[in-house]
Amino acid sequence: YNDYWGLPFTYESSHKSWRPVSVWSFRFGKGGEIGRRLIANVGIFCGTVVESSMGLFGKAFRNRGEIYNTSLDYNGRETLLASELFVHRFINVLIHAAIVQVVGVVTTLLFANNRNSKQFNLLQLYTKCIPQILFAVHPVHVEAVVNVANRPHILALLFNVTCVDPSVPLVGMAALCTLGLLTAETAIFQFPAIALTMTAIRYRELLIVEKKNGKTDDTDEASQSTETSSPHSQKPHIVNAVISLLPRYILLVMIALTYLLYRHYNDTLSIPKGLIRPAENPFYDNVEKGEWTLARRAMNYSYILSLHIMKSFGVEIVGFSHEYGFECIPEILTMKDFRLALPLVLMFVFGGMVAWSLHGWKKREERVQRIILILVFFSWMATLFPISGILKVGTFVADRIAVASSFGTSIFGGRCLAVWITGDQEPAEEDTVGRANRLKRRYNALLLSTLIVHSLAKHTHRRAAQWMDSVPLYESSLAACPRSIKSNLEMSKLYSGLIPHMSDLEKAL
After folding, report:
1. Could you tell me which of 200, 198, 161 has the C-alpha nearest to residue 179?
2. Which residues, at least 6 apart from 174, have a Cβ–Cβ distance to it below 8 Å?
3. Lowest mean pLDDT segment, chosen from 50-59, 206-215, 430-439
4. Do 140 and 401 form a contact (C-beta atoms < 8 A)?
5. CA-CA distances (angstroms) from residue 248 to 182, 194, 484?
6. Distance CA 277, CA 344 (A)
7. pLDDT at 141
8. Is the separation of the CB atoms in 119 and 423 below 8 Å?
């Protein structure tokens, strides 16, 4: 009967966010005394190891005594208990770690190969591990993991990405997808990605089965088209894949429609307009008042969408902030604004990916496979649809929105690095120069991979430290958005006496 923030849906100020599974995860995930004592000791052990390691580089967070405190139990004895906040963060870390494992599984299923050679075994290993590493250290996840209130975004993703494996029973798939929708509203925008990913996996499975049966895809497109034109020829693998997954497609549609109809019946499908504050989502105010033309709206939201796409790639354009509000991202007024170069470049890159998948591949099955993989990548990018300016949402710019899309970028980015490192073809007989060139390419690829992982990990470590303390969190927000009303007000409270040693009434004013 209550929304995610605890207000009854009948209230005018209700956020209308219905997330019962997320609420239950908080209600029943407090740990109890035994659990909190166990997690506290695990935290001390892990914290000691991490702080000691980071201390060698001068990057330790703080003194251990400032983090862990003793409490009195019912008998008046001192005991070490983890706070409920620490327990909830611990659960968030476990959820994120579980998604890291699923990344490896999904990547292996998407790019499975039955060739048994040392090179391709190494390629499969890198294909599994590199995406896992990229996802594990991705800075866009910090807000959803450290800020406990954003758990729905990672928990819903965990439920949904588990459904992409076609071997999951239909009953299990129905339960997981339903749990995902009851965890976060944005989970419904992941359903197209679920359908396309499981299609790509099933298509890959059919190709492998064909190769194991002694057939190959070495025939060119002309001969294959001749074969398929025969009335007695077999159906293309993509058709067989779609037919075999048809019950799962229907199930996804039925679950989504049932969810939407139920939300509509209870009038909880959309956030009330009065709760969308200009200080937090300034662009929507211009849309609501009719001050923007369609062209102005397209220009501004194409830039906002591009910012989130770059976040999913681990690139921060405007700076990290927990709130992107008033004048943080100035309005784009004309087509001459240099910021529009970002969406244009992304359109060019994505268009090049489409052209690459459509042309230059003589084998039909190989071309179909690449087209499907490109569609899978785009479907995970499409999870950013809520902030495209078409729907009414209260969020403007936020890291948590790009968590689902980073699932796709980690998988495909990691695969590209793995192919670059090992090579995608069996090595022919090489001379000394050929071996030297291959080693040089592998060295360059490993160096680039290391630099990418180091950069992501560095930003993740710094951003996590900022989220753990209000002072650096608000300072980072003001650095990115110096005229943000909300961030200035929050910072002024800290200087007004909320933190005694920071009291400075002049600075607060």
Report:
1. 161
2. 251, 255
3. 430-439
4. no
5. 19, 10, 46
6. 30
7. 96
8. yes
Structure tokens at 502: 């920071």
Residue at 66: amino acid letter: E
How buried is residue 1: exposed, middle or buried, by Cβ count under 10 Å (0-12/13-18/19+)? exposed
CB atoms inside a 10 Å sphere around CB 335: 8
Residue type, position 422, single letter: T
Structure tokens at 401: 């929105």
Place of tokens 């709206």: 297
Q: State the pTM of this model.
A: 0.87
The answer to which of 17-21, 53-57, 298-302 has the lowest mean pLDDT is: 53-57
- CA nearest to 314, candidates 478, 415, 458: 458
* Bridge partners, 79 (sequence order): 71
Q: Using alpha carbons, select from 440, 408, 450, 468 the residue that is nearest to residue 50.
A: 468
Alpha carbon of residue 124 to chain centroid: 23
Please state the three-class secondary structure of 118-168 as a single string.
Answer: HHHHHHHHHHHHHHHHHHHCCHHHHHHHHCHHHHHHHHHHHHHHHCCCCCC
Q: Are strands 78-80 and 70-72 parallel, antiparallel or unpaired?
A: antiparallel
- HSE (side-chain half, CA atoms, 13 Å) at 315: 8
Of the candidates 208, 192, 219, 411, the residue with the CA atom closest to the CA atom of residue 313: 411
Choose among 326, 230, 311: nearest CA to 281.
326
What pLDDT band is residue 220 in, cutting at 50, 70 and 90? very low
Tokens read off for 67: 């983090």
Q: Which of 229-233, 259-263, 475-479 has the lowest mean pLDDT?
A: 229-233
What phi-psi label fits residue 383: left (phi over 0), alpha (psi between -120 and 50 degrees) or beta?
alpha
Q: What are 149's two structure tokens?
A: 């209130």
